Amino acid sequence: xxxxxxxxxxxxxxxxxxxxxxxxxxxxxxxxxxxxxxxxxxxxxxxxxxxxxxxxxxxxxxxxxxxxxxxxxxxxxxxxxxxxxxxxxxxxxxxxxxxxxxxxxxxxxxxxxxxxxxxxxxxxxxxxxxxxxxxxxxxxxxxxxxxxxxxxxxxxxxxxxxxxxxxxxxxxxxxxxxxxxxxxxxxxxxxxxxxxxxxxxxxxxxxxxxxxxxxxxxxxxxxxxxxxxxxxxxxxxxxxxxxxxxxxxxxxxxxxxxxxxxxxxxxxxxxxxxxxxxxxxxxxxxxxxxxxxxxxxxxxxxxxxxxxxxxxxxxxxxxxxxxxxxxxxxxxxxxxxxxxxxxxxxxxxxxxxxxxxxxxxxxxxxxxxxxxxxxxxxxxxxxxxxxxxxxxxxxxxxxxxxxxxxxxxxxxxxxxxxxxxxxxxxxxxxxxxxxxxxxxxxxxxxxxxxxxxxxxxxxxxxxxxxxx
Length: 468
Fold this sequence. Notes:
Shape: globular
CATH class of the largest domain: Alpha Beta
Number of strands: 21
């Protein structure tokens, strides 16, 4: 059944900008710091959300700092995907009590997926009383109003009410850097994988209107952004809740026609919805990067069913073959979970054999972490942590060897790369397939596509020289 998406009216967003002006005016009368710190945990969607939080803060007159003692407002934008991430955030929140004692006028905000969980919000309410504002992803568009309530009343504010989700256009954005940009094309998830908390904290799938997405990409291309990543919990489902008839492949084709020199990437895809039409579109669109992140999670069909992934091992392998038939040199990455409840030694070997067969360029590997409120958290889990860790380390060693071999095959090739930054080791660049390349050169190259001759490699990165 189609679910209606709540579209936030322009006048409602305008009301939030009015709260920004009120906070700006209030700050003019107070001695508090006009600097803010936004600390982001988790996925690229959280990064995109933080860009909108910074956009609102800038409208309020705040500059930005990474120094906790300098900040008048601290926002922790959190992730709930694994227990380790939650523990890390709570540890950092606890440590901020010392900063708050030195700066009692400081406002501390906790938002994001963790904040949407009732048990986390209650823990913050009871045990972390120095936190002033807690709000979930659904309330992000109302951040100025919520912050105004804290500042004008000096009371604690909690907003983590459940709702299907909404879409608000016109929220200001402050992006990090001028080369790469994130563009959210949809929010939420309908898949309900048995181990995953995302549908419970981010709501059901809802797509932005195509023209809103395309207008944002046009503006980014005109501003000189060279690497644009389209974001969604499952981008392959884009458009199913819209009446316009444009699916994700159609959106890519339309974005490919936008003038400018840039690459289009996207994440994440669900294998059950990755289609032949999408593979063909990628092959035909010169601006769509030849890289595909396609999480498989487990190599056993039985485990996949227990995970509620809704595809089989062979179905996944069929998708990989179809993708490589269209794009033979595609860079293929994936996610895998080790030690899902009830996974046997034989089923783990099925995961290992799938990795050997597919030969991914890179894997994001995780030991299963139970999340309160998900079906998998209630399953019996007889395998002990030490056994899971041994399997995890073995898997990582196999993938590291494959990655090293894949990278070694680049040596001697000249690849068109985007120079995207610099660190203490020199310039950093990315191949079209998003492989990290380190090279020497002047920082004037940042933001440019340059031919790079690959001279060396290890399992993590490539090394090269800008070709003359």
